[in-house]
Specification:
The chain has 527 residues and is mainly alpha-helical. The chain is built from 17 helices and no strands. Helix 5 packs across helix 12, helix 6 packs antiparallel against helix 12 and helix 7 runs antiparallel to helix 13.
């Protein structure tokens, strides 16, 4: 039996209340194999109901069901990513080892630099590690749930996975959230680039470096990004960056090693070190940073779709190994970084070290290089999400030519790049951005997998006739409820923290009379 024998495109998979369709004979029972449905070519929405059942039951019995399916699926499916960007032929796909590096590179990044500060805000190492351990259970389960749901329609992006689980509007909502998240992440990367330049120039040029306009971060960051990032933003495919994944992983490992060595051999005087939170609400302050740090769920579906052995067994090995590497690096960097500086640790821990040391300077340069290579990946994901929204509402399939696609791609990438540059100039603190991004990461880790788990459970046993199905449904609803709760609490707490007068930024390494846009007004004598 195939899924076409039971549910028409866009129908709700919840058991119907009143029609003459016999689900006992046609729905999936507890003994059905879910892998039987992996070749389904159309999405099934659990978020809405339509009149498909009534029209099917009251229509012509001689109507060809395949013809009906073909007609309806065309109205409910949009190509989100060009065929060339997916990997339908997995024979030459990524090995399991290569997949591990890709997932680690997608997860490890800016969160590493902010995690020691989050440990301080949460009340110390023990509290933060316990919160991280609890979240890791959900993070790992979420990866497996998304991969299992991707098998239903052979999805290649997170938007397509949510199309399977929640229909067209689920895909559109996912596109919006992915776009916002990737946009904020790109701002974070640019801020990190500015931080690394500040540390390098302060050590090489002197503490007054920023008074020379071509050393000022408000000039160096945009100028270097135009040269090194912008040309990579217009490509249709991003597979040319896959070789940088292993390099990026080793860069992060070097930074972690540097933090550990500085703790053991450095002469740093730590500030007060907390052993418990000042208030129980402080525990939530570490959640957005952990969610942001381990969030690879946007990228993991494209990675999974390109595996040479695309199955849950090999993906479980790859994802578990990747998360284990992330746990080792994040926990090591956060613990030893916090113990080195205590409450005086900065939002970007590398700014606490003396960049005159060659080992620190190498770490600054390496993090900058990794960030230059990572920005285009996030822009690609966000660009595809925004492009799918534009195509849904403003472009008809029969009028979307290759030239129009190229124009749309170049336009979105240019506007995206310019907007992130302008905001990064005005927001020189990654902590302010991570607070907001961490709340959106909770949606990827909890809400989306919860909806997908509910979908796959109801596809297999729509009447919840077994204990296993009922327990799985409870788990799925727990994912969704917890995700929305964390999203609301973390987002609210982050906004309050960022807007609070008591929330002070670390003093800049070099004070200037004008920052941000005012720097350019003074540079060009604009009054």
């Amino acid at each position: 039996m195939t899924i076409k024998d039971c549910i028409a495109p866009g129908d709700s998979i919840f058991c119907p209340r009143s029609h003459d369709y016999d689900y006992n004979d046609h729905c999936y029972g507890p003994d059905d194999d879910p892998t039987e449905f992996t070749n389904n070519l159309f999405p099934v929405s659990i978020m809405r109901q339509n009149s498909a059942h009534s029209s099917r039951s009251g229509g012509d019995d001689n109507e060809d069901p395949n013809e009906s399916i073909s007609e309806k699926s065309d109205d409910d499916q949009t190509v989100l990513v060009p065929a060339s960007t997916s990997c339908p032929d997995t024979e030459g796909g990524t090995s399991t080892l290569g997949t591990i590096f890709l997932i680690v590179n997608a997860a490890l990044g800016a969160g590493l630099l902010n995690l020691p500060k989050a440990f301080d805000q949460a009340g110390g190492v023990v509290t933060a590690v316990l919160v991280q351990a609890m979240l890791l259970v959900f993070i790992m389960l979420a990866l497996l749930i998304l991969a299992q749901t991707a098998n239903i329609d052979n999805s290649a992006t997170l938007q397509e996975v949510m199309h399977t689980a929640a229909g067209v509007w689920g895909r559109r909502a996912t596109s919006v959230i992915v776009t916002v998240y990737c946009f904020g992440s790109c701002i974070t990367f640019l801020i990190i680039i500015g931080d690394q330049f500040d540390r390098a120039f302060a050590s090489l040029v002197g503490s007054e470096y920023c008074h020379t306009w071509y050393y000022n971060r408000d000039f160096v960051m945009p100028a270097s990004s135009v040269l090194l990032i912008l040309p990579l933003c217009y490509t249709k495919k991003i597979d040319f960056l896959k070789y940088a994944s292993a390099f990026g992983v080793f860069i992060i490992i070097y930074v972690v090693a540097l933090i550990c060595v500085e703790y053991a051999t450095g002469d740093h005087v730590p500030g007060p070190i907390k052993t418990k939170p000042d208030d129980w609400l402080d525990v939530f302050s570490v959640i957005p940073v952990i969610c942001f740090g381990y969030q690879c769920h946007v990228s993991v579906i494209p990675i999974y779709s390109c595996m040479k052995h695309r199955n849950i067994k090999h993906f479980s090995v790859a994802s578990a190994s990747a998360i284990a590497i992330c746990v080792f690096t994040y926990t090591g960097a956060a613990t030893f970084g916090y113990l080195t500086f205590g409450s005086t640790v900065s939002d970007d821990i590398l700014t606490n070290y003396n960049a005159k040391k060659p080992s620190v300077m190498i770490a600054l340069v390496a993090m900058g290089l990794k960030t230059y290579a990572t920005y285009p990946i996030l822009l690609f994901c966000g660009r595809e999400g925004l492009s799918s929204i534009v195509k849904d509402f403003f472009v008809k399939d029969d009028t979307d030519t290759p030239s129009k696609e190229k124009t749309r791609r170049y336009t979105i990438a240019t506007i995206w790049f310019v907007a992130t540059i302008l905001l990064a100039i005005e927001i020189p603190n990654i902590g302010a951005v991570i607070h907001v991004l961490g709340s959106f990461a909770a949606i990827f880790i909890f809400v989306f997998p919860g909806v997908c788990l509910l979908q796959t459970t109801l596809l297999k046993d729509c009447k919840l006739s077994t204990t296993k199905s009922r327990l799985t449904t409870i788990l799925a609803l727990s994912f969704v409820v917890l995700g929305f709760f964390l999203f609301g609490v973390v987002l609210t707490q982050g906004i309050i923290t960022d807007l609070s007068p008591a929330s002070t930024e670390s003093p800049p390494l070099c004070e200037t009379e004008a920052r941000g846009f005012r720097f350019y007004f003074n540079l060009f004598n604009v009054t």
